[in-house]
Amino acid sequence: MNILITGAGGPAAICAYKSLSAAGYNIFMGDMDPMSAGLYLVPKGQQFILPAGKSEMFVPFLLELCQKHNIDLLIPTCDVELMPVANNIEAFEAIDCKVLVSPVDALETCQDKYLLMEACKKNVQLGDYDLFENFLANPHFNNNWIVKPRNGSGSRDIFKVTNREELENLAHLEGKNFMVQEFLEGKEYSIDMMIDKNGKVCAAVARERMRTDSGVAVTSKVTKKKEIIEYAIAVAESLNLRFAINVQVIDTENGPMLLEINPRFSGGLSLIIAAGADIPLMCAENILFNRPVAIVADYKEIAMVRYFQEKFFDPSLFLNEEEHAPETLVLAV
């Protein structure tokens, strides 16, 4: 069976590659950057330079690529790729290629942090939040606040405000799709989950994010804190999510509070796999063979530190970005 994993330069793709290649699947890797490390984990002819996820060429290129190489399963691992792929599931299925992605409605909710909070507020406790315009018109500072885009990821355009003057300095953000959230303090946890195609939670493993680098956990440990896991499951059940999801929470003095949801494989998944929940393999076999997924009822409490690992090869094997320009729909083979 042939599996194509995109976002080959990211840790999520590497985690999926390690799991699925070890299980005997034939892995293809794709990324928009010809220097992405994951491209060089697979043989020549199974590496692809892709258009950007926002490009109009992204889906047509993937469709042609998947059809030409008889790809059985496509796994997008970058946030920007999820919606274009989900919106075209029928086109991929028409060429006998299944896709590991949640439904469009769930993705839309997860990608808009305000809508996410609105969707979850009936099922779990949340920190205070509001639309930026509402808060600007009627501010109160019993808490410190974070001003952030409703859409987007990473730390760009995120501001902490502690008083009215700092808030008024951000008045230019009005009408630009921002929101405010209560600034929360406590230990951060990620809960990696597998939800089968029928919506059943088959695995939920929590890990403490002890140290991060560029948003990815580099030092982490698995925990069996029941309250954290039950909270994450309740969050997931508020949405129509499927397959791999990652729920990020902060354990405050008032209990766990939701930070965000990544509706895809996470960059810290290697620790979860080592603990006993091989989520990439569970997802692949549920999708490809419609097999019932055995529930992971227990797992090991282990810790992880990360380090670089080198891959050596002949310089002539570097992919040439100009030669394989994606706009031409020429495949990098």
From TrEMBL:
Write out the transmembrane intervals.
Answer: none
**Keywords for the protein's UniProt record, in alphabetical order:** ATP-binding, Ligase, Nucleotide-binding
Top-level taxon? Bacteria
**Which part of the chain is the ATP-grasp domain?**
113-288
Q: Which residues form a coiled coil?
A: none
Task: List the InterPro entries hit by this protein, alphabetically.
Answer: ATP-dep_AA_Ligase (IPR052032), ATP-grasp (IPR011761), PylC_N (IPR048764)
Q: Which residues form the signal peptide?
A: none
State a single Gene Ontology molecular function: ligase activity
Identify the SUPFAM superfamilies for this entry. Glutathione synthetase ATP-binding domain-like
Cite the PROSITE patterns for this sequence. ATP_GRASP
Q: Which Pfam families match?
A: ATPgrasp_Ter, PylC-like_N
Which protein are we looking at?
Carbamoyl-phosphate synthase large subunit
Please name the source species.
Answer: Parafilimonas terrae
